[in-house]
Specification:
18% strand; globular; homodimer; alpha/beta; seven-stranded parallel β-sheet; Rossmann fold
Chain lengths: 227, 227
């Protein structure tokens, strides 16, 4: 295949994905659901963050989860224990969710529940610091996690994820004393990519920063009303 | 685009990549170079492992590095300090190296050096636990790293990387006392995906396991002679 044909096909694919994302967002708006796309490297702590979030917010805010994984329902099963609807999507060989997969998830949500009762849909993406940032799924807000164990240089080396994020959680802060890293330098590197992003240092283990995260989330859901 | 056309194009792409990988391997064999493809999530410690490896082996084994990063030469610059040739490849938006990019790297290596003096070429892939496992670049051996901070379930959730690896390094072992994880369970999950893989627990910080790693590497290079 010629390089130009490859490039043209890729642009087509991204355009088709964007159209699908816009359609998903219109459906979510009609249902009155705010949607958040949660992204990070594998093992940065997306699922445990959701566990803590559901424990704190469920009941106050009606939350549905769309859970993306290449294979298994391990994470979906963890989250189902919190009594919320969890729509599991296995992406197979695909390294990210795309808008077509999430459209299928929204269809299943509407089939199994009255979707207008939900305030917030959280999409947990496949663990990957690269491709999920390129494929919108219909979200209103993007949240990225960076585990501080991943090192100071990641915002410089994987810029798109950090440029796209509305909120960046620095996770596993409890490990800071055992790592040769400078949290200020991580934050400076993030700001170099995205001066306006909200940066929240958190630890699911000690609870550090979780109140600030829940406050950010509440205000993100409330903003829906004013759109 | 229809799903079937998309699938056909993807199969085409993977076939073309495999052909390129076979060509790269033939060139490497002609030069007498053993090639290793180093893969992991972002921040699992590929570059620091290479630093430790070069400090221990350079001089004894002639090593060239092919350094893949989406952007920046941060890692390449770190490794150049060890006095080895480092061919930097920026993949742009691509989340993995492919055989065409590495062919370009080998071309540059042969242009700048006499390639027949090298015993070992180590390809450091883009930080991604998914796609690099699908795109061979011409390597003889695949080495995957899993930081124990990423959790016990990763081999089950990202199976291909673990199925493909000849050697799996469990990195950041020095953090084990501070994590709620069971190393035996990680190893059992890896073995479930790949019963025969060599598993080496290591810590770049304390030096744990680095001798075993270097021994594995030495024997991997020696095996070249008997092929």
């Amino acid at each position: 295949m010629h390089q130009t044909l490859e490039a043209a096909l890729e642009i087509n694919l991204l355009h088709a994905n964007q159209d699908g994302a816009d359609r998903n967002r219109a459906i979510l708006d009609e249902w009155g659901i705010r949607c958040l796309n949660l992204m990070s490297s594998p093992g940065a702590g997306k699922t445990v963050l959701l566990e803590k979030t559901l424990a704190q917010l469920n009941g106050e805010i009606n939350i549905a989860i769309i859970e993306g994984d290449m294979t298994t329902e391990l994470d979906a099963d963890r989250l189902r224990q919190y009594g919320v609807p969890v729509i599991a999507i296995n992406t197979g060989r695909s390294c990210h969710l795309d808008s077509k997969m999430v459209a299928g998830g929204l269809h299943r949500l509407a089939h199994e529940y009255d979707p207008t009762v939900f305030d917030l849909a959280i999409v947990e993406n496949v663990g990957n610091l690269v491709c999920p940032a390129e494929f919108e799924v219909g979200e209103h807000l993007k949240v990225a996690l960076l585990s501080i164990t991943e090192g100071e240089d990641k915002p410089l080396k994987y810029p798109l994820m950090f440029q796209e994020a509305d909120c960046l959680l620095l996770t596993k802060m409890d490990l800071a004393p055992y790592l040769d890293i400078d949290i200020n330098r991580i934050e400076a590197n993030v700001r170099q990519m995205n001066p306006d992003v909200t940066i929240l240092p958190v630890s699911a283990k000690t609870g550090q920063g979780l109140d600030a995260w829940v406050m950010w989330l509440r205000s993100g859901v409330r903003n829906r009303v004013s759109i």
